[in-house]
Structures are given as C-alpha cells and as structure tokens.
C-alpha cells in the first residue's frame, strides 16, 4: 500500500459509483471517489430518477384534483397550479438526498476528489491537477443524453430531460421526440399540468424492449389520456424562432413531410455512455461499437485493477442495476464474491398507471422454448376497482415443462411496487404454482399477480 494513495478510486458518484465507494470503505479499503458535479448522486439523484419522480408525484396529485377525479370521490377543491412551489419541492428532494450521500461519504471515510478524473496510466488518475495512484480504479461515469443530428438542444425551447424537469411555465404544446421511458414520464408530467403533448416515435410501438402486449396496452392508455402518438414517424429537423419551435416530421418509411408547431421540444431518444475525457487509451482500455466499456462477469475490464459498472457498461441503464453492480464490484475487489443476476433486473416506467417488468418478454420466452402464459386484468382486482384504477393487467410467463417463472409484466397504478415480489420469486427460482399458492393480503393490487399465476394453469378465481 505504501506507494499507493488509495486501495480504490471510483470515478463518478452516481448510484453505481457512490454505492461502490461506500461498500469498499465498509470492507476496510482506503477509498476515494472522483466526481465533477457540485453535488454527489450522479444523474439519478441530480437530474434523473429523483427530480423526475418529484414532478411525477406532484403532477399526479394536481391532475387528480384538477381533472375532477377527486370530486368524484366527494372531495371538492378549487385548484390552482403554483409551478414555482412544485419546482421548489423538486429541488428540496434533490438537495436532501444528494446531501445525504455527502454525509454517508464522511461517515464511511470516503474521500471526495472534486473534479474531472482522467487516466494518466493503468493505476493513476489526475483530478483537478493532482495525481493519485490506486491499486484499483472503478469507472462509473454513467451516461448522457444522445443528441439527434441536426437538432440543437438549447435547454430552453429544445430541451433534454434536464431542461424538461425545469420548464419555467407549462408549454402550450410539447413535442416529445422518442416514445421511450423519459418521453412518456416527462410527457406525462407536462400533460397533467395542462400541456398538449405529442409523442413522435420512430418505431411502430412505444417502449422498445418491453413485452408486445404491454406496449400495445400502454399506447391505448396514453391515447385515452389525451396524448397524441405519432408512431412510425421520424423527425427530420427542428427550427427555433422567437421562442417557438417548428418540428418537421415524416413517415419513418419515407413519404410526405408535415410540420408541428411547439412551445417546447423534448429530445429523449436514448442515452450514451460517458467516456470522453477519461483518456481510456492511457490505461490501455477501449470501448465497443456502442461506446460502452466491456466487462467480464466480475466487472473487470481486462486491464488488471480496472473495473467498470453502471450505465457505462452494457445492460439496462437503470439506477438499481448500477447500485447492485457497485456492491458486487467492491466485494470482488475485497476478495469476496460479488454477483449480479442480470436475468432478474426489474424495470419500471413511472407513468399512470405504472408499467413494470422483470425477466423475459413473451416474445423472447417463446423464442427460447414452449411457455404457458397467465393473465389477469386489474379491472377484476377488487382493490384496483375500488380505487377507480381499472386500467392494465398482470401477465405471468412460465416454462411449459418446469413451470418456472420466466417473466412478469404489469400495467397497474402501483406496478412499480408490485414487481418486487415477482423479482424475488424469480430470484428464488419460483414456479407459477409457488406464487399461486402464496397467501396474498386482501384487498391488495398484488392479488392480481397471484391470480395471473393461477391463470397459468387456467384456474384464476375472479374472472
Ligand atoms: P450516473 O448516475 O450517470 O453518474 C455518473 C457520474 O459520474 C456523474 O455524476 C458524472 O458527473 C460523473 N462523471 C462522469 N465522468 C467523470 C469524470 N471523468 N470524472 C469525475 N466524474 C465524472 N433509473 C432508474 O432505475 N429509475 C428511474 O426512475 C430513473 N429515472 C431517470 C430519469 C431521467 C430523467 C434520467 C435521465 C435517467 C433516469 N434513470 C432512472 C436512469 C439512471 O439515472 C441511471 O441509470 C443511473 O444514474 C446510472 O448510474 P451510474 O452510477 O452508472 O451513472
Ligand atoms: P429509451 O431508449 O427508453 O427510448 C428512446 C426512444 O426513442 C425509443 O423508443 C426509440 O425508438 C426512439 N427514437 C430513437 N431515435 C428516434 C428518432 N430519431 N425519432 C423518433 N424516435 C426515436 O431512451 P430514453 O427515454 O431517452 O431514456 C434513456 C434511458 O434512461 C433509458 O434507457 C432508461 O433506462 C433510463 N431511464 C429510466 C427510467 C426509469 O427507470 N423509470 C426513467 C427515465 C430514464
């Protein structure tokens, strides 16, 4: 250790990096974490998961009051939007949580190296003009918005997710480019607050990668909510004049162009890994075609002592996946066995209703072998019905021979909470029968998972 400054230097303090740093320190390793932002927590806490959920929660409550949903329950209120206060509570949530990570760093004696880190060798990095040598370096630099060629993001009229979280007033018309997770979540926020929202999606369905039936149902529900969906459509240009945008679109397969006038345009066509400025070549590292750093099962990069986790490596760009990889990599560095089961990573879209999934889609499961599928509509779930939340369903996919659960897909008001039991069941290797014979509390939305599991063998009770 004598000529090393640290056992571990983690580059990036997002959910991957800060968790790796804390676990490494807990395991007795002398640890530092380089972060160039003014606050810790990465994309997720500063401009991602947390602020978006703060706006989703507040806008959902506003919509319940403003749209008359509450009045139908006998709650009458005069509703007025105070957007400044709504933004204030978002900023408070971010401040509280990012400050919390700073506290945890101090508590666990993780040193924060403030500034951009760049490799100067296989075991050295430079941060803010100072050189540090470490036995292990973990790259956890995350991702940034993918730009759309020819469309300039000014974060005022044409915004990324970061600008879309902070719009100072509700746009009359918001055009969302990309019907993925960010487009639907942030589109929902501004739709609920009064904007007309048009989603332009290149593919013929929203939410690529999700189960086919779920994608169709989601489109039906968002349309019913008043979102305009332009599927199989591509954006060929955006011009901005006098604070307004003109978006030119045409059919993805080619054809006549049309223009959409918008007060704001959200570019949400995906995210790409952050490796620029790291001087990877000085450490003997390269990236793959998608700009990601390839890793082995243990999160090693192939260069001894250099590891990588989170959005910068292949796999879903999700905070909890990054966190679990952060714990695993620290444990591997400490000589323990850190494992992440990448087959069981849940994903949640926090719209209303929520959309959640874990494991294989029906399409992927069928491509691998014979399956049995059980479905149960939320309309027949007593709690969802009582709460006036009839939209959506649960689908359980099981191996036809072994009955082992291969995937669970849910659209329901609280799908994000429901999916945890499915992930746990799959992690324990459950069969659909195991779920069907597990006692579920009544009345809960989760009973729909039990019924969908019963439906795998054709025996649900309430339908
Ligand atoms: P990041 O969180 O991106 O952190 C990387 C950090 O590294 C950054 O702070 C960056 O400043 C720093 N950095 C980069 N390069 C350097 C360098 N050279 N030197 C020093 N520091 C550097 N995921 C979910 O699971 N649930 C959600 O609800 C969710 N909502 C999201 C909403 C939005 C609007 C967005 C944009 C993303 C959302 N995500 C969500 C995705 C989630 O934010 C990411 O998957 C997660 O943050 C990845 O964690 P990470 O640690 O790999 O990287
Ligand atoms: P995404 O990959 O989810 O969706 C991008 C969409 O844009 C796709 O549907 C794609 O077909 C479409 N698209 C691509 N190019 C296009 C073009 N030129 N014109 C029209 N459509 C085009 O990416 P998104 O929404 O930007 O989110 C990035 C990542 O952030 C996601 O992969 C997700 O992992 C993460 N995230 C997770 C959240 C969550 O877990 N709740 C919330 C927000 C983001």
Structural class: alpha/beta
Q: Which CATH class of the largest domain?
A: Alpha Beta
CATH fold-level assignment of the largest domain: FAD/NAD(P)-binding domain
Percent strand equals: 15-25%
Molecular shape: globular
CA(first)-CA(last) distance: 66 Å
Which radius of gyration do the C-alpha atoms yield?
A: 23 Å
Task: Write up this protein.
The protein is α/β, with parallel strands linked by helices and 463 residues long. It has 3 domains: 202 residues, FAD/NAD(P)-binding domain (3-Layer(bba) Sandwich), CATH 3.50.50; 112 residues, 3-Layer(bba) Sandwich (FAD/NAD(P)-binding domain), CATH 3.50.50.60; 111 residues, Enolase-like, domain 1 (2-Layer Sandwich). Helices cover 32% and strands 24% of the residues. The protein has 14 helices and 22 strands. The strands form 5 sheets. Strands 1, 2, 3, 4, 5, 6 and 17 form a 7-stranded mixed sheet that branches. A 5-stranded parallel sheet has the order 8-15-9-10-11. Helix 3 packs antiparallel against helix 5 and helix 3 runs parallel beside helix 7. The relative contact order is 0.12. The model has no long low-confidence stretch (mean pLDDT 97). Flavin-adenine dinucleotide binds next to helix 1, strand 2, helix 2, helix 3 and helix 9.
Features:
five-stranded parallel sheet, alpha/beta, seven-stranded mixed sheet, binds flavin-adenine dinucleotide, Enolase-like, domain 1, FAD/NAD(P)-binding domain, binds 1,4-dihydronicotinamide adenine dinucleotide, 463 residues, 24% strand
Give the arrangement of secondary structure elements.
Blueprint: E1 6-11, H1 15-26, E2 31-35, H2 42-47, H3 49-66, H4 69-72, H5 83-108, E3 111-114, E4 117-119, E5 124-127, E6 130-139, E7 143-145, E8 158-159, H6 161-164, E9 173-177, H7 181-192, E10 196-200, H8 212-224, E11 228-230, E12 233-241, E13 244-251, E14 258-262, E15 264-267, E16 271-273, E17 306-308, H9 319-333, E18 347-349, E19 354-359, H10 362-368, E20 371-377, H11 382-386, E21 393-399, E22 405-412, H12 415-427, H13 432-436, H14 447-456
Parallel strand pairs: 1-2, 1-6, 2-3, 6-17, 8-15, 9-10, 9-15, 10-11
Antiparallel strand pairs: 4-5, 5-6, 7-16, 12-13, 13-14, 18-19, 19-22, 20-21, 21-22
The chain binds flavin-adenine dinucleotide and 1,4-dihydronicotinamide adenine dinucleotide (NAI).
């Amino acid at each position: 250790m004598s000529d090393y400054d640290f056992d571990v230097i983690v580059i990036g303090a997002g959910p991957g990096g800060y968790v790796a740093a804390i676990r490494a320190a807990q395991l007795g390793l002398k640890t530092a974490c380089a972060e160039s932002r003014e606050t810790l927590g990465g994309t997720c806490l500063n401009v991602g998961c947390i602020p978006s959920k703060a706006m989703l929660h507040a806008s959902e409550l506003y919509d319940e009051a403003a749209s008359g949903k509450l009045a139908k329950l006998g709650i009458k209120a005069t509703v007025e939007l105070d957007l400044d206060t709504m933004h204030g509570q978002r900023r408070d949530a971010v401040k509280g949580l990012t400050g919390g990570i700073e506290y945890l760093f101090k508590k666990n004696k993780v040193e924060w190296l403030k500034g951009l880190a760049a490799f100067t060798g296989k075991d050295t990095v430079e941060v803010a003009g100072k050189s540090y040598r470490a036995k292990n370096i973990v790259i956890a630099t995350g991702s940034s918005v993918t730009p759309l060629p020819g469309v300039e993001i000014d974060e005022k009229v044409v915004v990324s997710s970061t600008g879309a979280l902070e719009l100072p007033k509700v746009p009359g018309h918001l055009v969302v480019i990309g019907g993925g997770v960010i487009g639907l979540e942030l589109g929902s926020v501004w739709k609920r607050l009064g904007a007309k929202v048009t989603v332009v999606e290149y593919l013929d369905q929203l939410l690529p990668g999700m189960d086919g039936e779920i994608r169709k149902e989601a489109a039906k529900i968002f349309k019913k909510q008043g979102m305009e969906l332009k599927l199989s459509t591509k954006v060929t240009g955006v011009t901005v004049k006098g604070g307004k945008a003109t978006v030119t679109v045409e059919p993805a397969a080619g054809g006549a162009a049309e223009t959409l006038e918008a007060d704001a345009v959200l570019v949400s066509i995906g995210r790409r890994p952050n490796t620029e400025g790291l001087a990877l070549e000085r450490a003997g590292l390269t990236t793959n075609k998608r700009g990601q750093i390839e890793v082995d099962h243990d999160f090693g990069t192939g260069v001894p002592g250099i590891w990588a986790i989170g959005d910068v490596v292949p796999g879903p760009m999700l905070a909890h996946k990054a966190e679990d990889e952060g714990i695993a990599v620290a444990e591997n560095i400490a000589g323990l066995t850190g494992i992440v089961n990448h087959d069981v990573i849940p994903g949640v879209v926090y719209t209303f209703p929520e959309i959640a999934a874990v494991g294989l889609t029906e399409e992927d499961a069928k491509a691998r072998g014979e399956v049995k599928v059980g479905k149960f509509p939320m309309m027949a779930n007593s709690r969802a019905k009582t709460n006036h939340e009839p939209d959506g369903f649960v689908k359980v996919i099981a191996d036809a021979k072994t009955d082992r659960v291969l995937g669970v897909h849910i659209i329901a008001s609280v799908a994000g909470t429901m999916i945890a039991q499915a992930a746990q069941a799959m992690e324990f290797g459950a069969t659909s029968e195991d779920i069907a014979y597990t006692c579920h509390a009544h009345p809960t939305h989760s009973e729909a998972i039990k019924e969908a599991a019963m439906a795998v063998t054709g025996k649900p009770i309430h339908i």
